[in-house]
Specification:
136 residues, DUF306_Meta_HslJ, HslJ-like_sf, 9 strands, Hsp_HslJ-like, Lipocalin, 9-stranded antiparallel β-sheet, DUF306 domain-containing protein, mainly beta
């Protein structure tokens, strides 16, 4: 007799996978503010979802928005963006205008450790998101 049998369940560590670019609800953590990225104020919730049919939808600082995008490899370009027409404070309306402007400047993306970074043609980070459910 060799003793009590032991069953090994798993010796492999679970490595979290990065979220997929498409069909994921991305929540904005930081956006360009001059030459650097600045975190969004507490209580702000700006979202982006890229759907498999080449359209986007999300929530800006004030309005819901929608539009189109093209994707080839790591290259990502947003087309026309439409939005609802709700009014907000001048600060929020300015932030929303800058957000939409930054989306139009996006030319590529990277996803690392659950963080989506959208960059311009020179590789400058414009917008930083986390996948819904991931730590901020």
């Amino acid at each position: 007799m060799w003793g009590t049998p032991v069953r090994v369940i798993s010796l492999v560590a679970q490595v979290p996978q990065d979220a997929a670019l498409q069909q994921t609800l991305w929540v904005l953590d930081a956006m360009r503010d001059g030459p650097s990225l600045a975190p969004l104020p507490a209580g702000s919730r700006v979202t982006l979802t890229l759907l498999a049919d080449g359209t986007i939808q999300g929530r800006g600082p004030v309005n819901n928005y929608f539009g189109e995008y093209t994707l080839e490899g790591q290259e990502l370009v947003f087309g026309m963006i439409g939005a609802t027409e709700m009014a907000g404070s001048p600060v929020l309306m300015d932030r929303e205008a800058r957000y939409f402007s930054d989306l139009h400047e996006v030319r590529s993306y990277a996803i690392r450790e659950g963080v989506l970074t959208l960059t311009d043609s020179e590789g400058t980070s414009l917008l930083l998101y986390h996948a819904e459910g991931s730590p901020a």
